[in-house]
Amino acid sequence: MRTDEVRALYDRTMREHARPDGPGVRVERDGPLVRQVGGRSDWNGVVWSSPDLDGEGADAAIAAQIRHCAALGLPEFEWKLYAHDRPADLGDRLRAAGFVPEPPETLLAAPAGPLTGAAPLPEGVTLRRVSDAAGAELMALAHERAFGTDGTRLLHQVVKRLESAPDDFVALVVTAGGEPVSSARMELYPGTGFAGLWGGGTVAAWRGRGIYRALVAHRARIAAERGYRYLQVDASDMSAPILVRLGFRELGATTPYVYRPGP
């Protein structure tokens, strides 16, 4: 896998020509930017900026996104900045305008085919696909226990996808003794060659037993069967080493810059 070629393909198909990540949202071009726009509980943010963007253009684009956030009354707006985006000081300009950087993530990719091998689960553990609201609640609970965060937004998004656009979405939950211990999602992006892995998290007591790897393998099999060439992950510091051992390659780093309007 040529990382430079795959990164260029990712920039073109997944960012510049991005598609909405769920029902009720839209992707629109705003001058040198591409952004996703939805409701207050959806993800709203910039996914791509022109490689020709200079300092003056960046400042104008940032100001325009702040006005956009205010006009829609959004609780927050994200600018997803990649390390190779231009201008080189774009992160500094975002901070100066009031955007706050969250922990950076590593953009990883791998061919789906080689990841489809057997990955057994521990005894007494069950992996199943989520297909209804009850399963989504278990998934959100596993997410809360794994990451220590509120799963309300995730629950809303999963239920919405299952009801309105399930064909390009996979949600999984892992249970032990009926209790949710892990969950994960996959977004299939038609026409891009990429399937995105999201949300893989396991509660602390069950880590290190192969559950995360099994979730990757299960999603890889679905992606490969559907004709997707690559898996893509925005990986945290916790998951990146595991994924690299499985065969993922680093395409770069990405940092979410979040703007939250004052009261």
From TrEMBL:
Pfam families: Acetyltransf_1. It comes from the Bacteria. Residues 125-263 form the N-acetyltransferase domain. Gene3D superfamilies: 3.40.630.30. InterPro entries: Acyl_CoA_acyltransferase, GNAT_dom. This is GNAT family N-acetyltransferase.
